[in-house]
Amino acid sequence: EEALSEIAALPKVELHLHLEGAAPPSFIRGLAAEKRVDLSGIFRPDGTYAFEGFRHFLQVYEAATGVLRSPEDYARLVRAVMEQSAEEGVVYSETFLSPDFCGGGDVDAWRDYLAAMVEAAEAGERDLGVTLRGVVTCVRHFGPERAKAAARCAAETAGEWITGFGMGGDENAYEQKDFAWSFDCAREAGLRLTTHAGEWRGPEEVRAALDHLGCERIGHGVRAIEDPALVERIAEDGIVLETCPGSNVALGVYPTLEAHPIGKLRERGVTVTVSTDDPPFFHTTMREEYRRLARVHDWDAEAFRDLARISLNAAFCDAATRERVA
Ligand code: HPA
Ligand code: ZN
After folding, report:
1. What ipTM describes this predicted complex?
2. What is d(CA 183, CA 189) in angstroms, rounded to the nearest whole number?
3. Which of 38, 138, 182, 220 is most exposed by smallest CB count within 10 Å?
């Protein structure tokens, strides 16, 4: 137990966190009350988010996001999320941001939202000691045309703070290659690339993400384990998996943490990192992820220190930021 407390208290680096998905339910309820929006349908009596399965999760997520309507709302959200991260011992966090929810893909509106978020992140860094960076994501089930608008927003604001471009949403909608234009646009703007793959569909999705989109990180990617040749390839090429074990168990991708392939992937030389995805939705936190993994695997404190080093190395920020955080 002492070893577990030591492990849970270690400094952490999180690479896969959806900003709206990290919103505490109380924060969303507060905004809903201010704006007189009835969101009672998305909460359980105990105040937690209510959903059954992944599709419904996405619907509840989008309903909650609907009360975030201004740059100021997003600035408050950034602060609330950074406070949580600080409590969890997170020192660096890469957060998925969607222009679709921040101005609907309009570049000028996106600039206003982003400016408010960056200002909140800078204040949060001073007060809380957490460094935040943004990865712009398009939403797969919104389709390739809207993804182009998100990519243009990303390209227009690429720099020290917006470090990457990626895709979330429903993996069963469209194909990775349908989004190649958007990923090319982001790459040409100097952005680093990641996409959700190999969570709801199998290893062929991970291959498509590498072959058609040129991603160097994969959101989840865990079902690569079903194809040994692919596991070898991602290990050799240093492709980084942003695994979110608690999320996978909460949504039923794997029945238990014991059944989750993170240990096997790591043993086969794959670069794995650990994140929470949408922590209040999946009843997890970074400390909780560390505690559960330490219970199931025989990873000692040094293994978790290694995990943080590997994760920081896989971060999309510049070298100066990495050195400052380390
Ligand atoms: N997975 C995929 N898309 C998402 C998620 C997620 O956990 N959260 C918000 N969009
Ligand atoms: Zn995700």
Report:
1. 0.94
2. 10
3. 38
User: Active-site residue among 20, 199, 205, 242?
Assistant: 199
Tens place of pLDDT per residue across the chain (326 aa)? 789 999 999 999 999 999 999 999 999 999 999 999 999 999 999 999 999 999 999 999 999 999 999 999 999 999 999 999 999 999 999 999 999 999 999 999 999 999 999 999 999 999 999 999 999 999 999 999 999 999 999 999 999 999 999 999 999 999 999 999 999 999 999 999 999 999 999 999 999 999 999 999 999 999 999 999 999 999 999 999 999 999 999 999 999 999 999 999 999 999 999 999 999 999 999 999 999 999 999 899 999 999 999 999 999 999 999 999 99
227 burial class (0-12, 13-18, 19+ CB within 10 angstroms)?
middle
Question: Which amino acid makes up residue 20?
Answer: E
Residue 199 a catalytic site member: yes
Do residues 219 and 314 touch, judged by C-beta distance below 8 A? no
Q: How far is ligand 2, taken at its centre, from the CA of residue 16, in Å?
A: 6
| β partners of residue 93 | 14, 132
3-state class of 61 per DSSP? helix
Closest CA to ligand 1's atom 7: 277
Verify whether ligand 1 is closer than 6 Å to residue 18 (CB atom).
yes
| Domains parsed from the chain with CATH numbers | 2-325 (3.20.20.140)
For residue 131, report the phi and psi dihedrals to the nearest 5 degrees.
-100, 125
Instruction: Provide the whole-model pTM.
Output: 0.98
**Beta carbon of 278 within 6 Å of any ligand 1 atom:** yes
313: Cβ contacts below 8 Å, ≥ 6 apart: 322
Q: Is the dihedral of CA 23, 205, 52, 64 positive or negative?
A: positive
